[in-house]
Amino acid sequence: KSEDVDEKVSSGETALAVVSAASRAPALPPPAPLPEGQVSPADCFALVGGLPPSLPNSDFRALAENFGQVRSMRVLEEPGRGARSAGIALLEYASPEGVRRAAGPGGGLCHMSAFLVMGALPRLALVSRELLNMMRAGEPPWPEGGPCSDDLRCVLTRQFEMWSLAVREPRAAGRCARCGAEESPPRGG
Length: 189
Prior knowledge:
It is a single chain. Mean pLDDT is 74; it is low at 1-29, 165-173 and 175-189. The chain has helices at residues 2-10, 15-23, 57-64, 96-102, 113-118, 129-135, 150-172, and strands at 45-49, 70-77, 85-93, 123-126. It has 189 residues and is of the alpha+beta class. Strands 2-3-1-4 form a four-stranded antiparallel beta sheet, with helices on both faces. The chain is globular. Helices cover 37% and strands 14% of the residues.
């Protein structure tokens, strides 16, 4: 395949045509399904972003434990700023049921009134097997206290950057950032 690309480029085809042809190539197949009844380790993990940096880890863990036993928790720290939270945490629940409850629509972890009081709009993302493998690639692995590589930090922060951009626009347009409903103008005056 590489030779085909080299020939096309040297024959004068544009890079766009070469990229276009490559994009028509079949995608990699999805990971093999697990045998019935078997749970992937990734099913017990959730990422939560948009957390207030001032939220103590112990308080966040207590909130997360409302949905199931938390086996472990790791907070992403801002580089060069000591132990200051970057507002992203990895939760490992003891069972997939804890993750399902925490991710529940309308009543999950991110919809707790504690976050409303703090003015935070956290978001929960399920962890794929590929992302879990990436997190475990370091020595020691990041979830177990190892350093966070620049690549992993980029992937983790990108999980939530698009969300923060999406919630800014509705708020600016007079809509609730959480549900998109039109907000009432302030009374009085």
